[in-house]
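Allow me, if you will, to draw on your knowledge of protein folds for a short while. Thank you for your consideration; the sequence and its tokens are set out here:
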Amino acid sequence: MSRLIRTRSELTESNQLHNMSESSDSRLLVLDYPEHWGMFYISNNRLTIAKALRKESLTDTIIIARVDNIKKEIGAAFVKIDENTMAFLKLSNIPERYMPVHQGSLIPVRLMSDEQKGKRIAVTAVISEKKLPQGWQYKSAYTVLYKPDNTLGAYIKKTFYHTEINKILTDDEFVYNELKEKFSNAELYADTTLSLAKLYSLKTKLKEAADSKVYLKCGGYLIINHTEALTVIDVNSGKNVASKKSDKEENILSINKEAAAEVALQMKLRNITGMVLIDFINMSEEASNEELISAMNDVVAEDYVTVKVIDITPLGIMEITRQKIDKPLNEYINIFINGGLDGKEEK
């Protein structure tokens, strides 16, 4: 049942009791920021997923928009979703049944994002007919046709349905009161001398998640580089060198398999999407490459979005694609770090 944790010692005792009865240690921290809720999924003391939910989110709301301007040269239309707010609509995201559109046309759109500094709200007219109420064609501009449940509890259920959450921890009473009715494993941490953010070293974990270099237990490391078109991950052996020449192939395969597991985790944590090229350490035997592909397929199977392992090229580069369903972590980092964790600057 939901409970109040007054001190760090009570939390430690609760964790010990939990670890005696559970095989894994997984918890979701929910923290309060000025304009967002921050959610951090920690498994065995490793941060593996970080999400931000705008408190007044309009994402997935369906509104009748008015076409304000069409820019065929950039393949887009600018549409108003209220008297003062302009949104960006790709012409390719307008179904044939609404064509042709012109200035003043009314068209139902779904909001794909909230407004951000320097960026317009993105919308699409590709909407399931089931979500459009009968007679919507006779409604006036800016009418809200559908508004999803974007409460904190609903978002957690929708976003973390694929994970096992042993505990949901927060040090914000408002958050706890909202969650305790929906989640029996919700706990309020009330020790004001040390916030949950500092207790779990979240600032350090997030800075590591933003670093291009990721160290492996074996002594090797990854270098992660993002370009506009794709992500390139380089695997390096580092200090890990086989003592005997005969052990070289087996040692490289071991490093590559550990790197594959870490790549799978980093793709989830950083929400890396699209084309991903992984430059593994070259191996001389085809059987080794096949074993590496099999290992990668095993670890990405645990991802909550679709990941496809294409192949390994003759140069030892593995090609992967990962489905995009959310923003990358680097778009949340400023919220979590620069604004201070739990809404205050962390010293």
